[in-house]
């Protein structure tokens, strides 16, 4: 039996078909640039030794609906799945589960209704996720479908961490609170760290740093998230590729007054034109590091702000955790930039965070420790794998419901 994972995002649909027992990939791919003349499917086809074939094709896909239909046909026509046969379940990534979903759930009409009610909190992502769910339910009516939420792992945060110091009515009437995102990734790397160290996650305190284009930090105490850096939306927290992260909210009113910018323009500015891109004109950390090496001052400043802000979150999370066992770096920058890891950890030796530059610089493809033996804190680089986490949670969910 197989599990199909669908991550129907704002402009792309990622998919992975895996073996339902081993979670080993069968096909892994992405359908990109939906709604343009150059939509493209790229996928890797696996055999027992690893990737044995790659396929790329340009297409014309006008909408997410068309995209999901195309993918289902693609997998069926090439014999990867039989329409009513060998799919044990379909796992869907859903960005926002609001306060309703504290873990993955089997999708029913009432679950769909709740995801729909959460659209105001994720107006771009949840509708795209729902399209994926609708089409898969129509095509595979007897196959269980599971929703895996980006917000669910953070639902264990206490009120003092998730509430804003704002009037109570904003929470009770509009659900204005901190939710957190990237939960699937934080949960995956936390589990991998525990597995690697041979300890139950329930005995570990961790800080997990997901540093991709979007970036977030999570404080995990005895296996449960107690705080995370993203808030009502993914805009809060760390400096990101194009998002500003924490800023004085009064900047918005000040900008509206002095520049006359409309509120939606300011929203675009903070989400798409700020962060690394805002400070140095690029959101690609590889390019920024290259420019830094050539003496570019803006690139240097962008990296300094980026690392400084991560360091401040580590300090804050150390304070609330009391004891830190593992610091995890993951996602594009976290997994691939020894320079960022070093700059973040430098100066934290007195807190037991002692990175070894040689271990840090080595090429890392799987969970690896990079700390000094004397340091109290394990520093780990762990490649994230949200699709495997979604497949595992999907499997657990259908087993529990039987
Ligand atoms: P997304 O949030 O889109 O999934 P990723 O996790 O793929 O993002 O991370 C994208 C970021 O990772 C980009 O800033 C990219 O420059 C950075 N990155 C990827 N490879 C490297 C590398 N070798 N060195 C430094 N940064 C890298």
Description:
The longest helix is centred in the C-terminal third of the chain and has 25 residues. 39% of the residues lie in helices and 21% in strands. It is α/β, with parallel strands linked by helices and 402 residues long. The model has no long low-confidence stretch (mean pLDDT 94). The chain contains 15 helices and 14 strands. The chain is globular. Helix 10 crosses helix 11. It has two domains: 148 residues, ATPase, nucleotide binding domain (Nucleotidyltransferase, domain 5); 189 residues, 2-Layer Sandwich (Nucleotidyltransferase, domain 5). The site of adenosine-5'-diphosphate has 14 residues, from helix 10 and helix 12.
Features:
6-stranded mixed beta sheet, 15 helices, alpha/beta, Nucleotidyltransferase, domain 5, 2 domains, 402 residues
Distance between the termini: 16 Å
Class by SSE composition: alpha/beta
Shape: globular
Range of strand content: 15-25%
Residue runs with pLDDT of under 50 for 5 or more positions: none
Report the strand count.
14
Helix content: 25-40%
Give the C-alpha Rg: 21 Å
The kinds of small molecule bound in this structure are:
adenosine-5'-diphosphate
* CATH-defined topology of the largest domain: Nucleotidyltransferase, domain 5
Name the CATH superfamily classification of the largest domain: ATPase, nucleotide binding domain
What oligomeric state is this?
A: single chain
């Amino acid at each position: 039996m197989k599990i199909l994972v669908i991550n129907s995002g704002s402009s792309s649909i990622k998919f992975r078909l895996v073996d339902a027992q081993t979670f080993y990939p069968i096909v892994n791919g992405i359908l990109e640039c939906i709604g343009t003349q150059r939509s493209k499917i790229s996928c890797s086809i696996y055999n027992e030794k690893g990737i044995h074939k790659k396929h790329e094709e340009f297409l014309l896909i006008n909408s997410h609906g068309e995209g999901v239909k195309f993918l289902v046909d693609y997998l069926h026509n090439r014999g990867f799945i039989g329409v009513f046969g060998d799919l044990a379940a379909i796992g869907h990534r859903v960005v926002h589960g609001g306060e309703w979903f504290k873990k993955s759930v089997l999708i029913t009409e009432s679950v769909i209704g709740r995801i729909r009610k959460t659209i105001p909190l994720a107006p771009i992502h949840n509708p795209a996720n729902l399209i994926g769910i609708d089409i898969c339910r129509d095509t595979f009516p007897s196959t269980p479908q599971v929703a895996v939420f980006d917000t669910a792992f953070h639902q264990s945060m206490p009120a003092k961490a998730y509430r804003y110091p704002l009037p109570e009515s904003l929470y009770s009437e509009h659900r204005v609170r901190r939710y957190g995102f990237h939960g699937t990734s934080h949960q995956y790397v936390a589990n991998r760290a525990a597995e690697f160290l041979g300890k139950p996650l329930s005995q570990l305190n961790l800080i997990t740093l997901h540093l991709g284009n979007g970036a977030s930090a999570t404080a995990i105490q005895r296996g449960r998230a107690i705080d995370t850096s993203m808030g009502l939306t993914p805009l809060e927290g760390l400096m990101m590729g194009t998002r500003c992260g924490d800023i004085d909210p009064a900047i918005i009113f000040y900008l509206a007054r002095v520049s006359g910018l409309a509120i939606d323009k300011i929203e675009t500015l903070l989400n798409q034109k700020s962060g690394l891109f805002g400070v140095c004109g690029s959101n690609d950390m590889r390019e920024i590091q290259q420019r830094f090496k050539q003496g570019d001052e803006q690139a240097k400043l962008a990296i300094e702000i980026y690392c400084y802000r991560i360091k401040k979150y580590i300090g804050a999370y150390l304070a609330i955790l009391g004891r830190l066992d593992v610091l995890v770096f993951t996602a594009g920058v976290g997994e691939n930039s020894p320079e960022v890891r070093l700059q973040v950890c430098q100066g934290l030796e007195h807190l037991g965070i002692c990175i070894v530059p040689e271990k840090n610089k080595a090429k890392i493809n799987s969970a690896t420790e990079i700390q000094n033996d004397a340091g109290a804190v394990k520093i780990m680089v762990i490649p994230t794998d949200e699709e495997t986490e979604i497949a595992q949670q999907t499997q657990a969910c259908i087993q529990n419901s039987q």
